[in-house]
Specification:
The chain is α+β, with helices and mostly antiparallel strands. The protein has one domain (about 15-85). About 30% of the residues lie in helices and about 20% in strands. The chain is built from 4 helices and 3 strands, in the order H-E-E-E-H-H-H. The protein has helices spanning about 10, 40-45, 50-55, 70-80; strands spanning about 15-20, 25-30, 35-40. The chain has a 3-stranded antiparallel beta sheet. The mean pLDDT is about 80.
Length: about 90
């Protein structure tokens, strides 16, 4: 028995979005208002201003929890309709 194909990214692919504060550009997909998928590449990791601050001391770079400025940029882009929210609730329709 084979696992069913996951076509979510085919139906609604990730979209590039730049951070409002730095040159980091990531791929983003908002499944709903509570769930966001973010794909970082090396260029975005190097450009992010918050990453070096959170990866000091006992916090290795592999455990970077995310950029609050980028999160705010994603929220704003979602509200403005620049990033599609795939499953909107009834209040949005």
């Amino acid at each position: 028995m084979t696992a069913p194909s996951d076509v979510r990214l085919i139906d609604t692919p990730m979209q590039p979005l730049g951070c409002g504060e730095c040159a980091a550009t990531v791929l983003v997909r908002k499944s709903d208002w509570q769930q966001t998928s973010i794909q970082w590449n090396a260029a975005a990791q190097n450009a992010c201003r918050e990453r070096p601050l959170s990866c000091r001391g006992d916090n290795p770079a592999e455990q970077f929890a995310g950029c609050e400025t980028l999160a705010a940029s994603i929220r704003q882009a979602s509200v403005e309709g620049r990033i599609e929210v795939v499953y909107r609730d009834e209040l949005d329709q």
